[in-house]
From TrEMBL, chain A:
One term under GO cellular component: plasma membrane
UniProt-recorded name of the protein: Sugar ABC transporter permease
Chief location of this protein within or outside the cell: membrane
Lineage: Bacteria, Bacillati, Bacillota, Bacilli, Bacillales
SUPFAM superfamilies: MetI-like
Topological category with respect to the lipid bilayer: Multi-pass membrane protein
From TrEMBL, chain B:
Protein name in the entry: ABC transporter substrate-binding protein
KW Lipoprotein (keyword) present: yes
Signal peptide: 1-25
InterPro entries to which the protein is assigned, alphabetical: Bact_solute-bd_prot1, SBP
Lineage top rank: taxon: Bacteria
Species in which this protein is naturally found: Paenibacillus sp. BIHB 4019
Keyword terms: Cell membrane, Lipoprotein, Membrane, Palmitate, Signal
One Pfam family hit: SBP_bac_1
Cross-referenced SUPFAM superfamilies: Periplasmic binding protein-like II
Organism lineage string: Bacteria, Bacillati, Bacillota, Bacilli, Bacillales
The keyword Nucleotide-binding is annotated on this UniProt entry: no
Amino acid sequence: MKTKSLYPYYLIWPALLVYCVFFVLPALIGLFYSFTDWRLDRETLKFIGWDNFKQIFSDKTLILALKNTFIFAIVTVIGKNVLGIALAIGLNMRLKSKNLLRAIFYSPSILSVLVISIVFTPMLRTDGTINKFLEAIGLGVFGQSWLTNPSIVIWTVALVSIWQHTGFQMAIYLAGLQSISKEYYEAATIDGAGVWSTFSKITLPLLLPAININLMLTLIGGLKVFSEVFVLTGGGPGNASQVVGTIILRAFGEGNWGMGTAINTLLFAAVTVISIPLLIFMRRKEVAE
Amino acid sequence: MNHKMKKAATGVIASLLALSLAACGSNSNSPAGTATNGGSGSSGGKVTLELAISKSSQDSAFVAQDLLDAFEKETNIKVNLQLLPAEQTATVLQTKLAVDETPDIIQYNLASAVTDLNLERNFEILDSEPWVDRLLNKDVLSANDHVYSFHVSQDTGMQGVVYNKDMFKELNLSIPTTFEEFLAVCEAIKASGVTPVFMPFKDNWAANIWPAAAFADYAAKNDPTLFDDLNSNKKKWTDIPEFATLLDQQYQVFKKGYTNADILSDSYDMAVGKFLDKEVAMMFMGDWLIENVAEKDPNIHLGLFAIPSSKDASLGASPLGGQLFIPKKAKHMAEAKKFLEFIASKEQAQKIVDAQGYVSNFNDVTTPKLPDYKQEIVDNYITPKKTVLTMDAHMLVDRSELYRNLQDEFAGGKTPEEVLSAWNDKFAQLMKDKGVAGF
């Protein structure tokens, strides 16, 4: 009996071993290096305590990068989820072309960020398609140097990311919506419930598991942002769109690998500290409903 | 019966396994063995050399397909190019060197290799290579009294204002010798409907051409020990108000509308096209741009004059760029050295020197008649000793953050004073990290 009850755990071991070797161990090694002066031009390693971390917080560019990372994370979490829910509800209705539309909205998320960059970079130039379109519809006054104006560049990158990934969030919400029994809606219709009360009293609460998954995915993805910024702006102009991910690359580029691993450790800690309490909070809400 | 079947099946599987392992072993050992022996194809396998090069240097004479084909034909050694993204070249190479995934040959800049790639630790000393005795000028390939790099030329890259001589002639313009004269030239060109200056500052390094020459010219004329003082922390970048003036000059060229509109969206790889299409008249750049344009259209006549930051400024001379290096941990060391030997051979070196108009660095290779623009540089600047080694040659640390700050100036995020202040802080931190005395 005892052997039988342990049997499922045996199946976990191979995966656990791979996880430990390829994730836990490198993470611990990285943690160790973040307390050293590991550099390209040094033959030996020296333990330097908290020096790397002290230096990080005296670096104005890193403070800017942290601010940009949070702007990107918040904007994309809101954008991807609000639009994702709206699209999912729209495409959960009885539309003739709903399958085609689902495929169209989902398709950007399967493209490489590099492809997105190649497409969007010329479009976002001052003389690019987007400004020409705005001009054509009489909104030329809103034209911008989308990727070279330091005050809006991180917002532009966030919008491109929302455009690319909303379809993925939509797919998860669609799955969530289709798991809600139609009986609830039939009952609500009989009771004469309006559109808003049906949405707020039935759809939203029963969609909470999907919302939780999407919130966690978009939040963690937002805090770890790198590729979108790297390919669209390289952190520029100047340092205007630097995020923590590109700052880590910069530290490695300067040959300061100890510093790079220290910033990475901080990013890991920040993602953990923000996401785990949020997950616990959301799970509780889910149970309460 | 069932038991026998199992035994037979186990036997077959074990035999197949042993066979496949043996096959894997022989495959994986083959190239290594070849490399150790130094022979190309001596054990039947063909060696492929990995040559890493920045994408911005892909027009290098060392990686021309006919040269690589001729090398393969003669030695049966293939050369595979690893094109690295221009802005990430240093990072990618640092990582490759750190994790021992080293290419067999790297094309890089000697001065930058000293600061970026830890030359002494990572690269092979080439003092005893057969071509070294034929060198006319070992210094341009050396650091710390050792030859670390390879080139067939002893030219340094000259940096200043690349200009379209035909346009200047048509508009009856002469080469400006002061900043005020330069602005007047820009105004005349703009009035003719051509963009006076192309600034491709999406590539932030391009914003450094003006200050790199102008700062060096200022130091040479006013304070010859300035860079030594900066490198020993006796002076700070913010201590020299003239630096801010020089930065502001370049900004004024943009602010007065003498440049392309979208300078932070336009990149260096557009430059050749802009000159070919006669859209622009000038650009702050090196003489390599003139070579690149001449390759596409020899009928366009470009020249180079000194950055007009002060009266009669000197032309910037950058440290020789684009040498070949062999990492100490190259997997095919012998073949990599053979590749350098091949290029250094009298026949191949002469071909390259003739095609590129180089000043030969080998005593048995003849310097050809120089292209007009190069002869003018020699006559106007090199012979009368009106050149100055650019600021970059004196820097001991990675300059990327300076370039970002310069880009920030054009994005409206920093004044020249703020650029210098930010760079001062970063420079001090990088020098301290490097363990330089005084920081």
